[in-house]
Design a protein that fits this description.
Elements lengths: L5 H15 L14 H25 L2 H23 L1 H25 L4 H32 L3
Length: 149
């Protein structure tokens, strides 16, 4: 039976039963994932929603609320998708962050570097660079494991 003792087989079966009672986000095996990227994208989505609410409260801008809140919810949804399907989730996060970084850099230059546009432009660029760095890191690990020794 694969060299396992009865006690280790029983422990393995019990641990799998405990996993079945946990919420879905705890069932993901974190050893192969880059957790800090998921946390970064989640906090970026929360930042987008928070600043959309701020723009709505101060300027009464419904467009900021719809677009900022929508993109924040989209980022959080893609972060949740990346827990089960990392490639499409992270690619989607990177595309949305890239589009937003271009938009916020343009707005930053137009508005003489208002603090909210600067914060969002810098945060968007950090997310894009981090996701690309995570992709390059994962691909180098994959290539290293595939090369014959």
């Amino acid at each position: 039976m694969g060299g396992r003792t009865y006690a280790s087989r029983k422990w393995h079966r019990l641990s799998r039963m405990k996993q079945a009672r946990q919420p879905f986000f705890l069932l993901v095996h974190w050893d192969m994932r880059l957790r800090w990227l998921d946390a970064l994208v989640l906090s970026y989505g929360i930042l987008l929603i928070a600043l959309a609410l701020y723009a709505f409260e101060t300027k009464h801008s419904i467009m900021s609320l719809i677009m900022g809140g929508g993109s924040g919810v989209l980022e959080i949804g893609l972060a949740a998708l990346s827990l089960t399907h990392p490639r499409p989730g992270r690619i989607g996060c990177a595309v949305v962050a890239l589009i937003l970084s271009v938009f916020f850099v343009q707005q930053c230059i137009k508005s003489n570097f208002k603090w909210d546009f600067v914060v969002l432009a810098v945060a968007s660029i950090i997310v894009v660079v981090s996701l690309m760095g995570g992709h390059l890191y994962a691909m180098s690990k994959k290539k290293a494991s595939e090369t014959p020794a």
